Every structure is written in structure tokens, then in C-alpha cells.
């Protein structure tokens, strides 16, 4: 019994619920017989992987669904042995090189090259090329991306590369220009609602529209999250109530609480507590962008317009610094500290105005 | 003077040492080779004509020979004349431009040219005088040279008349010239060098030389100055200096000296009685009883003194130094050159006898003082010679003298000695050493004869006997132990005695069992200095330095050597706990030296300072010692370095210097942090000092700052919370900038940015938050948190790997979206339905290919502070049931799924193959599994997983068989392991 989110995942391009024109384009592309490297990008939970999988199925037929996990051992030039897990079928290989951290270049060079170098033995089979899906392409190091650039050109006869990324801003232009960009945008609220409703229909449940809307709101355009929320709601309480509470994720709650603490009191001691909470978030692998976003969204609620711009500017400043630096906590803390300083001033000024 | 006796005693090593100490310039000058040849020839001749003044030439200070003697001999008048013209022109030019001497003049070829000149023209002489008059303060090289040439010429003529060894005669002027120019140069440039050293060594003189010297010296030394005093005096001064050079050269003309010293040595032997008396001789009767006159420097210039016997109020060394300060020279034995003999109580009879024979004036101590007082009034006779240079020479002499005397002091208790007794002194020392260590041969006093002013103080004051080792005087000290061990070594290891390995805790261990000793201690305590030099001891220094490929197995080899050794082996090392040394310690008599305490060092250092003539207040010295972290060698180095600059070290300067020295000590990060934020410490710190704090540990320092800056109460923001927060914010921003710099440094290897990081990560935060720490300093939490984070990432990756086949999301998505839901759907049924919920849970686990362990991972990953672990709501019975059923029914783990799937597909294809093929597969599988999991659980699960495999289809039975087979094999291998 899989979760609904996996259970009701569409597996063909025609069955996709939104961005249907794009799906049609992709279908035509495949039917043409050949296609360039693809760079599929879009926010999390928009259905990038789903779409790619549909495409592969369209390309190779149901044989693609027979997946297996494989472990590869690769030796780096410095004689370090690295393990990497790949998901593959007979026709494609899916790999996430950033699993091995900064050794991802070796993965690109060795693994993908070996795959790409092998020709299809039986050209009477469906296609002359294999597909390599590279996940989290935007997390690849610059070295790896440059290594990929060459691989892409050299083995274009035997393999197609599909890159999956959240954002193309971290993909080097050289690669961007070698790929056909496919943007998979997040579904709209209505699309999410209709999908939720259809899932409920398939499950034989009745979903109040209000609840569906709230779930869609809270999921923030993330369909995966929306479906998971739906299921949680179902587990919590069925039949659904229109005013049913949609339980947020623990980390979201934690983040919100942290933001509240910042607004409550501004002092070095408080900052120390905040730091520990931020550490907690970091430990749980919440990306610093999310933390920044979450904090900012909460913090600006308490600010007037002038302060808002200040705070947003600060947030942008320090968020950028996170990417330049090596220890996100330092920049997060610096943001919180600067917010505290300006907020304290702001509050005192407001209080002074009152009297 | 004391020195010559040393030389007598050990003239040969001394000679070699002087040879070794050839002025470095000699290597840059042409004709070095021919010089050498010439020298050896000359040396022989010198042997023959020892009594002649010319002997000078054979000196080892051949460094300044510029032309081969042959050339000189054939020196054709025309050439020399032209040369003279050359020089004259040059001099004129020099004088007109008033050009100060340049290094090139000394080192260059022009130097040589000048020396070729043998017979300067008469006009030259006149001109010379003019020049001198004009340029009294112009210490031009040519000036000196010209003067010298003048002198030389006179001498030349004089000697020529005598018709003795023309070769040498001819060479002599040249030699002098060069010598002189060197002196001149030194006065301008290098404060101390070989020439001066040799100068200070003016010790041994041959009677003939003395005579001449005296004769020349006389005109100046007379206080009644003639009207045309200036020039004469000047010349005289030169003469005297030249003489000094002669002496020193003579001094170095070792063959005669050696011979002579041998004679003296023999003689001395016969005077054992006197020696005995000398030994019992007391110090001055009335030390400090008279006012010692402060003679003007140079007032005794040109006078040669001999001091004999015990003076009334001052020590002999003092007397010597007083005379030297006044520009006089002190020699050890009486010769015709001697101007005065200062006679004290119990004078050396031979000296008195000789003095009366030579009709030398005898002075008492009072007489000496009177002489100084009267002469002080006389005009300075050394106008030409630059005062600075003279002083330098004096200083140097003094330095030298001090060095000698303190060396003696080191060799023995400080005693008033006449020169002839020094040798006896050595003897006594030897005997003392013999007494001390019967098995040890005396430490050769060679160190005493190497020109000390050259050597490092650490070497110079290296303890020569066990007595002088600082902090090791106690009966149970390590040194004593070592001595005892050495003494008994041969008896212990003669094979007769049966030795028992002592318990490592035995306190009064003599180490009899061991054939080797391991001396260990921090650098500078003297672990290395302690080894008594001895013929039959093998000393392995710095065994912990054995490293690298060249020394591979070195320790093992050493141990083998120790095992088979027939002589005691002494190894020294700094770090005894070093893993490399550990194996060695089992075979060694372990003697650990610790740093002596400050008081012990202080005493020794004070005495050395006294000997070197440095005045250091004890408090300052204490500072130095603590500053150097009780490292004696370091203290000595510091002292010798600073004393070069200034003999009188004031407390302030010492404080300053120790501050500098202290910087070299590595502070721990805690101390660094305290200093970074402490307002008190900042008062005395420059920005450079602050940034240096960062460099104590630039990887950990910033983390400490980041961790603890919130615990600082900045003094700038007292009672002002707004200001406080502002400061905190600025600090945080600065730290964040520091992090960016660090990233750049690490990722791009741009280590030159470190100072920038120092500013951002340490100096600026310290500046903003300058104040005091309000809470205790914490170790950076970042390190722990970071590793915690990495652990979570690892678990997450594993989990994601397991779920990967059925989940489209990335690791991040799994973490942020799936985790809670998955956890709820796994744990929910167990909480709600108890035992009945187990199948539902198992179903979820199965569909996501989760292991039992993954549940724990799930719990860990999804747990937040102040949240209760959902598993704690689950009844333990239910948990047990879950585990039981999980194990019984099994869930296909991702890995077994991988294996089974692969296996299934393969076995489907392989069904027709015989057992061999399957065996191969089994092996493959086993290997894979060994790689992937070391978890015993997988085996158990796998056995059950196989039948459930939906993909298995018809080949089910077959597969199971193979599976079991694989398992059996695995068990077997497990057992083997």
C-alpha cells in the first residue's frame, strides 16, 4: 500500500493532468524518433520526474518500468573508493551524482562515460541511444558540470542526457545551451484541487472543496505535498470536515516558532537560543533557502513597510552570502542579528511615537 | 691575558679552527690557490726565521693576501711606480669627493691594486699627511691605506737594511695594508668579524716583536706630547695598531707558537709546587676597596701590560678589562714590548725575573690607577683612527676577554689565575672530571679554544661537565642516574651478572638491565646537551627524528643494535610518547627530563649575563625565561641577540623584547579567545597583535569567536541594549564576511587572504565586542552540529536509497515532505490499533521497501526538540510483535530486492545452466552483499524475502534453493571470518 502520492502518479504523457500542451510537445518530440539533451527544471513537486518517466515510457515502452537499483563502485584519481546507487532499466540510467558530494565529477566522468560509450548491441531494438537521467543537476559542482559538457558532446550518438534541476541559474551556460530546456511549472491551485478531487474519487472518498482549497493553499504549489497532506487528513479524520485542520510539517512549525521567538525578544541570549534552533534545522537537512524564506515570511508580518524593505534587503544579502560562504549558520545568524538590531530600534521608535 | 695559555695547550685544534674561520671574503678574492701554496712555503721559512719580526706573514689569517708572493718579489719599480700614481690619483679623487668607503672598494679588485704598491713616492707621503689632516673624521679606506703604506714603507726600508728574507719583507706591507683596510671597513660596516676576533686574540708575542712594538709604541704612550704631536701621534697610533695586528698574526702563526707553548707546557709541569700554591691562592684581599678610576678610552693606548699575582682590590679579570677599556693591551707573558708589569700579591716569580731583566717598569695596583688617572687627562692619541672602530675593537676585545674568562669560570670556579696557571687549571678540571665520573674520560676542553665570540651562546655555555647542567644537581636527578648507569654499565653487562628486568614502576631503578638509555624532554631543557662525550658511548641524537622512507625501520634497527651493543647507547629524543619511540622505550633506561623551573634557569642565566658583561635586571630576565617558556636554549639565544644591540638591557627594552618573544608561543584557542574580546588586553595590543591572535589557530579560532561572541559584554554598550544589538549585528556580519573569505581561501587555495580573514573573523569582532566575557568559553558547537548534520544526511541518503524505486522525489523532497507522512503511516496503525495494526505497518514498509532499521532512522530524522518520539507511544509488545513478524514474513529490502530482481532475471535466464553457473552467480551476489551491508539482518530477511518476490513467478522454487545455498555459503564465510 503505497502512499497516494505514489499510487496515483501518472505514467504516460497523455495521462498528465496539467501542462498538457507541453506534454503534447514532448510526445511529438519523442515520436520524431530523436531528441536533443533535455534540461527539465521547475520547483519541487511540480512533476518533473513524473514527466520524464512518462517520456521514457513513451520512448521505450513499458520495459522502462522494470527498474532496478544498482550500486557502482568508482575509484577517484586520489584512490578513494566511492559508492553510488543508480536506478536503471534496460534503457535508461538514473543517477544523482551529488550523492557523493564533491566527487561528483568522477561519477560524471566514469559512470556516465561508460554508459555512454556502450552502443546498443541490437539496433533493431527501439532506439539507438540510451538515456541518462541526472538528478539535481543544479547541485553539481562546477567541475562536474564542465566534465558533463564534454561528455554531452562526445557521446551524443549513443546517449541522451536528461538533466533535472530546480533552477537553471546554477547550471553553467555551456550546458544550458546544449540542452533543450523544459520548464515544468508548479500546478496552479485549481489544478491541484482538481487532482485532489480526482484522487478522492478514485479512492471513493468525498472531499469538501474548502478542504481541498486549504490543502492546495498550504501545499504552496507543491503537488506532492498536497497529495501527502490529503492523505494525512484522511488518516486523521474521515469523513473529511470542511474546517479540518491541515497538519503542517514539523519543520515548518519549528521554523515558524523560531521566527516568533525572534520577534518576541531581541537580545544576545535570545540570539543564542535562536542559533541552536537554526542548528537544529540545519541538522535536519532543511536547506538554508527554506529557512531564510520561512523566517522572512514570518518576520515581515510584524514590520511596517519601511522596515520590511530593510529586512528583505538584509535577507537577500545574507542569503546570497550563504552561497558564497561555507557555513550557512553564520549567515543565518548574521541575518537574525541584524533583524534584531533594526527591529529593536523600530519598536522603540514606535513606542516613543505612542507617548 | 688568559687566552694564550689555552692556545698553548691545544694549539693544533685552534689552528684548524682558525683555518676554518677564514674570512669569507678570502673566498671571493683572486689567487686564493696560489696563496695557499705560497703560504705553506712561507710557513716553512717562517719556521726558520722565527725570531724575526717578519714571522707575521705566515699567519693563518691569509685571508687578505691578494697577490702571490712571486709577483711581489719580481715587483718591478716601474710597475710599482705606476701603481703608486694610480693610487695617488685615486686617493686624490677620494679626498676631493669625500667619498665614504664602499663595500666594493674592499671586495673589488682595486683593493689588490693598491697593495701592489711597494715604494710610494716621497710626495705621496706629504700628500698623505695633508689628507690625514683634512680628513680626520673621514674614515676613508684609502686614507688608512695610505697611512699604512707610509708606515710599511718605513718598515720596509728598515727591514731591508737587515737583509732578511726579502720575500716576506715584501709581502709584509701588502699584508698590513690589507689588514688595515679590513679594519677600516669593519669600523664602518660589520661590527664584528674575524679580523677583529683575531685582533682580540693578541696573545702570544715573540720577544723580538715585543721589542719593536714597544719601541714604536713609546712615543705615543708618553704623556709628554711633543708639539708636532698630531701627525706623530697619528702615525704612532697606526703603528701601534699595526703592531697589534702583527701580534695577532704572530699569534696565529701557530707552528712557532705551538712549539713555544710546548716548551712552556713542559716548564709548567716542573712548577707543580707553584701550582699548588696557586691553587690555594685567595682572591683579592680587599675587593672593591678602592675607587677604580674611569679612564678615558684610549688613554693607555699603545701600552702593553702584564698583570701578575693577586691584586689588592680587584680581580685580575677586572684589571684586564679596565686596562682594555683604556685602550691598553694586556698580555700574558712578559716580553720586551711590555710597557708595564702590574704586580700584585704573590706574583709569578718568572715574570718578575724577566721583567727585571728587561727593565720593565713595575706597577702596583695603585700605580696602575694613577697611571690611568694621569693619562686620562692627556689628549686622545687616536684621532685618526675612527673612534667607533677603536671602540668596536675594544668592545670586541672585551667581549672576547669576557668570553674567555667566563669559559674558565665554567671550567672551574672563578678564581684569580695567572696565565700560566690556566693550563693547570685545565688539568685540575680534568682531574675533577675524573673524580666525578670514573668511567668517563674528561670532556675535551676543545670548546674553550674555539673562538667563542663566534659560536652561539647555547654552544658556548653548553655544560661541559655534569655539574653545570641546570636543574640536575640533586642526588636523584636524571643526570646522576645516567652517570651511575654509565659507570656500572660495563660491570653490569660483562656477562657475569644476571640481570632481571625491573618492574616499570620501581622507583630507584638504576637501569642496570638496560643496555641503552633514552633521554627525553622538551626542546631546550638540555636533553641533548647532557650527553657526556665519551669514547665508548654511542650517542644517537634525536631518534624521534627518524622519519620518512630513508629511515624506515630505523627504530627496529636501533633496537637490534642496542641488543647487541657492547657499549652503552644513549638516545635522545624530544617526545618520548611518540608512537615511533614507543617500541624503543622498552629497551631503554628511560630518563625523562622536564623543564627546569625559572629559578634554576635564572641563576645560570645571571651568571652568563655577568660573564658576557650584560646587565640585565633579574626581573627582566625572569620575563625572558617565562617568555621563552623555560627553554634554556631559547633564553640564551634571546640574550645573545639582544646583547649585540645593547650591552645594558633596560627593563623596558626587555619587556618590549619579551613581548616579541612571547608571540612565538602558541596559545590555546581558549586563551586566544579571551584575548580577542578582552578590553584589557586590547589596551596594549596593536592591530597586528590582534590579527596575530587569529594565526594561533586559523581554522579553529574563527569558530571559537563565532561560538562565543554572544557571551561577551561589550563595554561600549553598557546600559544600552540598542547599541548592544547593533554591535552584535555588526559582529555577526563581520563574521559572515570572514566565512566568505574562508571559503575563498579553501576552495581557491588563496592562502594569501588569511590576513583578511583575520580581520573579519577575529579582529573586527574583537573590536566591536571589546569587553569582558560573561559566561564560560564554549567549544565551537559547529563542529559537533556539523557532524550531526552529516550523520543525518547519511541516514537520509540511505533511506532515500531504499525508497528510491517508488518515490520520485529527491532526497530533499523525501526529507521535507515524505518523512512525516511516512512515519505517521508506519507508526499510526501501531499506535491506533496495537497488535492489529502490525500488518498494515508491514504493508507500508513493504511497499516502500523499508527495513526495520529504517523505522528507527525515520524516527530519528523526523524528531524535533520538544517532540515526543512517536515510537514511545507504541506498546513495547506491539513493537516486539512488529519485529517478530517483520523477521518472519520479511519485507523485501531494497538490497535484497536488487539482488533478487537481478537474481530473478538472471536465474530466469540461467535456469538451463548447470550448478556451476549458479555458483558463479552466488559468488557475485555474495560479494555484492558483503560490500553493501555488513548487517546480519539482511541474511535472515533475505531468506524469507525470496519467496515473496512477486517477480519470481514460476522459477520460485529454483530461486529459493539457490538463495538458501547462497545463505549457507555466507554463513560459512561468516564463520571463517
UniProtKB/TrEMBL annotation, chain A:
GO biological process, one term: DNA repair
The keyword Nucleus belongs to this UniProt entry's keyword annotation: yes
A single MF term (Gene Ontology): DNA binding
GO cellular component terms attached to this protein's record: DNA replication factor C complex; nucleus
Localization: Nucleus
Keyword DNA repair: no
InterPro entries: DNA_pol3_clamp-load_cplx_C (IPR008921), DNA_Rep/Repair_Clamp_Loader (IPR050238), P-loop_NTPase (IPR027417)
Domain of life: Eukaryota
Pfam families: DNA_pol3_delta2, RCF1-5-like_lid, RFC_C
Keyword terms, alphabetized: DNA replication, Nucleus
Chain's role: Subunit of the replication factor C (RFC) complex which acts during elongation of primed DNA templates by DNA polymerases delta and epsilon, and is necessary for ATP-dependent loading of proliferating cell nuclear antigen (PCNA) onto primed DNA.
Subunit structure: Subunit of the RFC complex, an heteropentameric complex consisting of a large subunit RFC1 and four small subunits RFC2, RFC3, RFC4 and RFC5; the RFC complex interacts with PCNA. Forms an heterotetrameric complex with RFC2, RFC4 and RFC5; this complex has ATPase activity but is not stimulated by PCNA. The heterotetramer of subunits RFC2, RFC3, RFC4 and RFC5 interacts with RAD17. Interacts with CNTD1; this interaction facilitates crossover formation.
Record family assignment: Belongs to the activator 1 small subunits family.
Protein name: Replication factor C subunit 3
From TrEMBL, chain B:
Keywords attached to this entry: ATP-binding, DNA replication, Nucleotide-binding, Nucleus
MF (Gene Ontology): ATP binding; DNA binding; DNA clamp loader activity
InterPro entries tied to this protein: BRCT_dom, BRCT_dom_sf, DNA_pol3_clamp-load_cplx_C, DNA_replication_fac_RFC1_C, P-loop_NTPase, RFC1, RFC_lid
A cellular-component GO term for this protein: DNA replication factor C complex
Gene3D superfamilies recorded: 1.10.8.60, 1.20.272.10, BRCT domain, P-loop containing nucleotide triphosphate hydrolases
Record domain BRCT: where: 295-376
Compositional bias annotation for Acidic residues: 911-932
GO annotation (BP), single: DNA replication
Composition skew (Basic and acidic residues), residue ranges: 34-45, 85-96, 159-172, 245-267, 426-437, 960-970
Pfam families: AAA_lid_RFC1, BRCT, RFC1
SUPFAM superfamilies xref list: BRCT domain (SSF52113), P-loop containing nucleoside triphosphate hydrolases (SSF52540), post-AAA+ oligomerization domain-like (SSF48019)
Localization of this protein: Nucleus
Family matches, as PROSITE patterns: BRCT
Domain of life: Eukaryota
Renumbered residue ranges of the record's region Disordered: 29-51, 65-96, 159-232, 245-273, 426-449, 909-977
UniProt similarity note: Belongs to the activator 1 large subunit family.
Assembly with partners or alone: Large subunit of the RFC complex, an heteropentameric complex consisting of RFC1 and four small subunits RFC2, RFC3, RFC4 and RFC5; the RFC complex interacts with PCNA and the interaction involves RFC1.
Functional note: Subunit of the replication factor C (RFC) complex which acts during elongation of primed DNA templates by DNA polymerases delta and epsilon, and is necessary for ATP-dependent loading of proliferating cell nuclear antigen (PCNA) onto primed DNA. This subunit binds to the primer-template junction. Binds the PO-B transcription element as well as other GA rich DNA sequences. Can bind single- or double-stranded DNA.
Protein name: Replication factor C subunit 1
Source species of the chain: Coptotermes formosanus
Amino acid at each position: 500500500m503505497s502512499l497516494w502520492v505514489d499510487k496515483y502518479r501518472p505514467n504516460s504523457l497523455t495521462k498528465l493532468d496539467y501542462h498538457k500542451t507541453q506534454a503534447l510537445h514532448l510526445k511529438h518530440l519523442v515520436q520524431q524518433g530523436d531528441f536533443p539533451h533535455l534540461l527539465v527544471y521547475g520547483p519541487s513537486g511540480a512533476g518533473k520526474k513524473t514527466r520524464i518517466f512518462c517520456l521514457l515510457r513513451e520512448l521505450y515502452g513499458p520495459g522502462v518500468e522494470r527498474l532496478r537499483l544498482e550500486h557502482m563502485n568508482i575509484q577517484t584519481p586520489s584512490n578513494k573508493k566511492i559508492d553510488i546507487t543508480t536506478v536503471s532499466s534496460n534503457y535508461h540510467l538514473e543517477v544523482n551524482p551529488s550523492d557523493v558530494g564533491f566527487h561528483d565529477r568522477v561519477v560524471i566522468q566514469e559512470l556516465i562515460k561508460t554508459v555512454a560509450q556502450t552502443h546498443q548491441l541490437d539496433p533493431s531494438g527501439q532506439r539507438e541511444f540510451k538515456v541518462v537521467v541526472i538528478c539535481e543537476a543544479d547541485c553539481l559542482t562546477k567541475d562536474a558540470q564542465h566534465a558533463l559538457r564534454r561528455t554531452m558532446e562526445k557521446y551524443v550518438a549513443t546517449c541522451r542526457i536528461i538533466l533535472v534541476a530546480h533552477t537553471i541559474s546554477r547550471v553553467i551556460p555551456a550546458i544550458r545551451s546544449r540542452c533543450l530546456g523544459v520548464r515544468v511549472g508548479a500546478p496552479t491551485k485549481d489544478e491541484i484541487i482538481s487532482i485532489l478531487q480526482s484522487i478522492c474519487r478514485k479512492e471513493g472518498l468525498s472531499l469538501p472543496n474548502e478542504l481541498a482549497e486549504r490543502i492546495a493553499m498550504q501545499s504552496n504549489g507543491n503537488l506532492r505535498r498536497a497529495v501527502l497532506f490529503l492523505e494525512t487528513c484522511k488518516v486523521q479524520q474521515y469523513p473529511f470536515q470542511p474546517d479540518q485542520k491541515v497538519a503542517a510539517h514539523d519543520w515548518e512549525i519549528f521554523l515558524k516558532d523560531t521566527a516568533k521567538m525572534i520577534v518576541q525578544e531581541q537580545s544576545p541570549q535570545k540570539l543564542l537560543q535562536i542559533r541552536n534552533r537554526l542548528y537544529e534545522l540545519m541538522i535536519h537537512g532543511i536547506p538554508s533557502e527554506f529557512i531564510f524564506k520561512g523566517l522572512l515570511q514570518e518576520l515581515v508580518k510584524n514590520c511596517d513597510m519601511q522596515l520590511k524593505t530593510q529586512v528583505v534587503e538584509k535577507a537577500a544579502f545574507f542569503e546570497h552570502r550563504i552561497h558564497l560562504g561555507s557555513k550557512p549558520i553564520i549567515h543565518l545568524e548574521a541575518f537574525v542579528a541584524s533583524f534584531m538590531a533594526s527591529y529593536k530600534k523600530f519598536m522603540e521608535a514606535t513606542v516613543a511615537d505612542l507617548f | 691575558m688568559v687566552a694564550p695559555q689555552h692556545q698553548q695547550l691545544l694549539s693544533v685544534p685552534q689552528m684548524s679552527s682558525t683555518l676554518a674561520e677564514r674570512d669569507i671574503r678570502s673566498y671571493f678574492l683572486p689567487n686564493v690557490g696560489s696563496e695557499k701554496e705560497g703560504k705553506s712555503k712561507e710557513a716553512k721559512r717562517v719556521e726558520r726565521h722565527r725570531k724575526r719580526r717578519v714571522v707575521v706573514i705566515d699567519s693563518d689569517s691569509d685571508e687578505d693576501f691578494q697577490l702571490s708572493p712571486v709577483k711581489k718579489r719580481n715587483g718591478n719599480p716601474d710597475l710599482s711606480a705606476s701603481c703608486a700614481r694610480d693610487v695617488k690619483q685615486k686617493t686624490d679623487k677620494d679626498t676631493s669627493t669625500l667619498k665614504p668607503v664602499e663595500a666594493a672598494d674592499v671586495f673589488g679588485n682595486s683593493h689588490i691594486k693598491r697593495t701592489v704598491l711597494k715604494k710610494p713616492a716621497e710626495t705621496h707621503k706629504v700628500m698623505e699627511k695633508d689628507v690625514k689632516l683634512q680628513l680626520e673624521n673621514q674614515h676613508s679606506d684609502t686614507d688608512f691605506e695610505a697611512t699604512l703604506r707610509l708606515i710599511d714603507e718605513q718598515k720596509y726600508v728598515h727591514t731591508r737594511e737587515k737583509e732578511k728574507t726579502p720575500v716576506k719583507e715584501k709581502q709584509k706591507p701588502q699584508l698590513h695594508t690589507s689588514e688595515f683596510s679590513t679594519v677600516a671597513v669593519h669600523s664602518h660596516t660589520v661590527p664584528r668579524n674575524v679580523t677583529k676576533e683575531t685582533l682580540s686574540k693578541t696573545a702570544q708575542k715573540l720577544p723580538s716583536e715585543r721589542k719593536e712594538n714597544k719601541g714604536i709604541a713609546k712615543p705615543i704612550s708618553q704623556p709628554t706630547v711633543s708639539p708636532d704631536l698630531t701627525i706623530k701621534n697619528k702615525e704612532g697610533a697606526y703603528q701601534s695598531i699595526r703592531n697589534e695586528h702583527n701580534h695577532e698574526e704572530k699569534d696565529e702563526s701557530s707552528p712557532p707558537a705551538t712549539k713555544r707553548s710546548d716548551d712552556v707546557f713542559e716548564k709548567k709541569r716542573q712548577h707543580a709546587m707553584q701550582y699548588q700554591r696557586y691553587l690555594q691562592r685567595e682572591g683579592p684581599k680587599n675587593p672593591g676597596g678602592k675607587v677604580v678610576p674611569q679612564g678615558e678610552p684610549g688613554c693607555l693606548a699603545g701600552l702593553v701590560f702584564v698583570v701578575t699575582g693577586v691584586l689588592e682590590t680587584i680581580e685580575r679579570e677586572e684589571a684586564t678589562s679596565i686596562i682594555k677599556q683604556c685602550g691598553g693591551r694586556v698580555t700574558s707573558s712578559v716580553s720586551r714590548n711590555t710597557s708595564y708589569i702590574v704586580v700584585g700579591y704573590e706574583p709569578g716569580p718568572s715574570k718578575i725575573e724577566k721583567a727585571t731583566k728587561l727593565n720593565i717598569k713595575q706597577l702596583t695596583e695603585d700605580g696602575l690607577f694613577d697611571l690611568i688617572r694621569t693619562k686620562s687627562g692627556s689628549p686622545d692619541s687616536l684621532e685618526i683612527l675612527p673612534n667607533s672602530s677603536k671602540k668596536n675593537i675594544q668592545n670586541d676585545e672585551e667581549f672576547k676577554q669576557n668570553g674567555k674568562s667566563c669559559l674558565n669560570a665554567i671550567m672551574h670556579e672563578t678564581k684569580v689565575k695567572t696565565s700560566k696557571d690556566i693550563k693547570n687549571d685545565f688539568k685540575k678540571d680534568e682531574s675533577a672530571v675524573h673524580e666525578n665520573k670514573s668511567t668517563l674520560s674528561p670532556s675535551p676542553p676543545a670548546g674553550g679554544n674555539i673562538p667563542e665570540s663566534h659560536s652561539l651562546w647555547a654552544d658556548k655555555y653548553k655544560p661541559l661537565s655534569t655539574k653545570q647542567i641546570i636543574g640536575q644537581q640533586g642526588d636523584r636527578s636524571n643526570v646522576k642516574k645516567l652517570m651511575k648507569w654509565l659507570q656500572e654499565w660495563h660491570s653490569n653487562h660483562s656477562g657475569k651478572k644476571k640481570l632481571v628486568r625491573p618492574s616499570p614502576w620501581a622507583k630507584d631503578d638504576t637501569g642496570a638491565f638496560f643496555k641503552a638509555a633514552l633521554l627525553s624532554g622538551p626542546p631546550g631543557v638540555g636533553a641533548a646537551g647532557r650527553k657526556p662525550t665519551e669514547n665508548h658511548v654511542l650517542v644517537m641524537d634525536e631518534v624521534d627524528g627518524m622519519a620518512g622512507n630513508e629511515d624506515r625501520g630505523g627504530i627496529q634497527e636501533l633496537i637490534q643494535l642496542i641488543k647487541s651493543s657492547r657499549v652503552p647507547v644513549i638516545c635522545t629524543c624530544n617526545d618520548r610518547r611518540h608512537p615511533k619511540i614507543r617500541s624503543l622505550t622498552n629497551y631503554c633506561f628511560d630518563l625523562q627530563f622536564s623543564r627546569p623551573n625559572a629559578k634554576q634557569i635564572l641563576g645560570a642565566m645571571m651568571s652568563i649575563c655577568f660573564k658576557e658583561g650584560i646587565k640585565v635586571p633579574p626581573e627582566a630576565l625572569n620575563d625572558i625565561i617565562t617568555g621563552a617558556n623555560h627553554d634554556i636554549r631559547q633564553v640564551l639565544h634571546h640574550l645573545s641577540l639582544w646583547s649585540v644591540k645593547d650591552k645594558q638591557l633596560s627593563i623596558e627594552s626587555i619587556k618590549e623584547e619579551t613581548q616579541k618573544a612571547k608571540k612565538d608561543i602558541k596559545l590555546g584557542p581558549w586563551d586566544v579567545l579571551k584575548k580577542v574580546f578582552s578590553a584589557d588586553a586590547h589596551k596594549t595590543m596593536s592591530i597586528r597583535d590582534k590579527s596575530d591572535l587569529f594565526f594561533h589557530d586559523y581554522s579553529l579560532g574563527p569558530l571559537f569567536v563565532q561560538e562565543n561572541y554572544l557571551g561577551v559584554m561589550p563595554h561600549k554598550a553598557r546600559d544600552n541594549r540598542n547599541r548592544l544589538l547593533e554591535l552584535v549585528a555588526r559582529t555577526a556580519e563581520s563574521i559572515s564576511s570572514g566565512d566568505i573569505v574562508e571559503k575563498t581561501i579553501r576552495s581557491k587555495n588563496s592562502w594569501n587572504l588569511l590576513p583578511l580573514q583575520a580581520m573579519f573573523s577575529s579582529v573586527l569582532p574583537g573590536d566591536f565586542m571589546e569587553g569582558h566575557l560573561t559566561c564560560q568559553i564554549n567549544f565551537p558547537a559547529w563542529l559537533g552540529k556539523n557532524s550531526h548534520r552529516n550523520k543525518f544526511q547519511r541516514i537520509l541518503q540511505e533511506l532515500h536509497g531504499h525508497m528510491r524505486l517508488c518515490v520520485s522525489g529527491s532526497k530533499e523532497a523525501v526529507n521535507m515532505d515524505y518523512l512525516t507522512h511516512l512515519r505517521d503511516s508506519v507508526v499510526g496503525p501501531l499506535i491506533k490499533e496495537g497488535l492489529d495494526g502490525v500488518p498494515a505497518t508491514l504493508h507500508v514498509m513493504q511497499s516502500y521497501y523499508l527495513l526495520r532499521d529504517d523505522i528507527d532512522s525515520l524516527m530519528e530524522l523526523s524528531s524535533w526538540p520538544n517532540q515526543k518520539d512517536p515510537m514511545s507511544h507504541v506498546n513495547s509488545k506491539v513493537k516486539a510483535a512488529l519485529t517478530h513478524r517483520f523477521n518472519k514474513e520479511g519485507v523485501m529490502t531494497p538490497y535484497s530486492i536488487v539482488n533478487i530482481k537481478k537474481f530473478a532475471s538472471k536465474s530466469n535466464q540461467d535456469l538451463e545452466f548447470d550448478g556451476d553457473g549458479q555458483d558463479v552467480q552466488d559468488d557475485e551476489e555474495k560479494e555484492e552483499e558483503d560490500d553493501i551491508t555488513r548487517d546480519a539482518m539482511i541474511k535472515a530477511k533475505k531468506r524469507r524475502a525470496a519467496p515473496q518476490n512477486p517477480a519470481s513467478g514460476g522459477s520460485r522454487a529454483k530461486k529459493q534453493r539457490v538463495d538458501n545455498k547462497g545463505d549457507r555459503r555466507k554463513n560459512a564465510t561468516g564463520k571463517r571470518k
